[in-house]
């Protein structure tokens, strides 16, 4: 098992981030969906349990073509679905990813604490045990300066060049922007990665850690660069957007499914 703690500083307040995160999640799901693959939102509803209440979501990710080839070689394509359960009791959130075929042999669990005014300096924001602290690797993410995959790069999603008219923020061109911006907050994302298949464990866990870092980096670059799209929205606005997005995702995922399946088979041969 790998334990990583990704620390992502953002040029907004914790309250603003809550809206921006939900907006960017909805748009990112749309971006990933089409041609028989993508995100299926099964549940999105309030939950409550002793001492905690928030929003529960259950999603299925149909993303077979994005799974590493060395995993696809040993797992049938019909089993290449990831199930995501998330309990969003903001500012604390917990997300669990599993796979029905691998059962207890695979899981990714991440806990997130969103801290207002923080610049990534808290050493144990999520109060984990000494044993886990000894295994944990801290991974700071700079959304403006960390490299991303060239195929993912878009000039209009580069924080070094983006300016928000509504919030009067950016661009993040100063190399020391994380120490200077105001408002500021940090996402502390503690991620447990487990893949218990002999011969593939280390390779897959390392691959997943890199993929997660890339995903977090891209997501938060988009969140900042889309500020003028979500800034000023209310939670009611977000919930209405999520309802509309669920219908859109169902349509986009099924459109072109037969053609997509055919092209995927050719690529796999």
Automatic annotation (TrEMBL):
GO terms for cellular component: cell periphery; cytoplasm. Residues 248-269 are annotated as: Disordered. InterPro entries: PI_transfer, PI_transfer_N, START-like_dom_sf. Residues 1-247 form the Phosphatidylinositol transfer protein N-terminal domain. Residues 257-269 have a biased composition (Polar residues). SUPFAM superfamilies: Bet v1-like. Pfam families: IP_trans. One of its GO terms (molecular function) is phosphatidylinositol binding. This is Phosphatidylinositol transfer protein. It comes from Hesseltinella vesiculosa. The lineage of its organism: Eukaryota, Fungi, Fungi incertae sedis, Mucoromycota, Mucoromycotina.
């Amino acid at each position: 098992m790998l334990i990583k703690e990704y620390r992502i500083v953002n040029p907004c307040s914790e309250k603003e981030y809550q809206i921006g995160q939900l907006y960017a999640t909805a748009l990112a799901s749309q971006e990933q969906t089409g041609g028989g693959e993508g995100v299926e939102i099964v549940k999105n509803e309030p939950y409550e349990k002793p001492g905690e209440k928030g929003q529960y979501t259950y999603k299925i990710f149909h993303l077979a073509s994005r799974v590493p080839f060395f995993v696809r070689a040993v797992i049938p394509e019909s089993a290449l679905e990831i199930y995501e359960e998330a309990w969003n009791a903001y500012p604390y959130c917990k997300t669990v990813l599993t796979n029905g075929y691998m059962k207890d042999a695979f899981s990714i669990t991440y806990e997130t604490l969103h801290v207002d005014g923080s610049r990534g300096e808290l050493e144990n924001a999520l109060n984990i045990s000494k044993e886990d602290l000894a295994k944990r690797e801290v991974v700071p993410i700079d959304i403006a300066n960390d490299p991303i995959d060239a195929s993912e790069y878009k000039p209009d999603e580069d924080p070094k060049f983006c300016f928000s008219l509504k919030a009067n923020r950016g661009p993040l061109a100063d190399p020391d922007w994380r120490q200077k911006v105001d408002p500021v907050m940090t996402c502390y994302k503690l991620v447990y990665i487990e893949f218990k298949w002999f011969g593939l464990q280390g390779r897959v866990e390392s691959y997943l850690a890199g993929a997660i870092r890339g995903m977090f980096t891209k997501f938060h670059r988009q969140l900042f660069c889309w500020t003028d799209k979500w800034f000023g929205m209310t939670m009611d606005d977000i919930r209405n957007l999520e309802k509309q997005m669920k219908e859109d995702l169902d349509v986009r995922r099924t459109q072109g499914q037969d053609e997509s399946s055919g092209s995927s088979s050719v690529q796999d041969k």
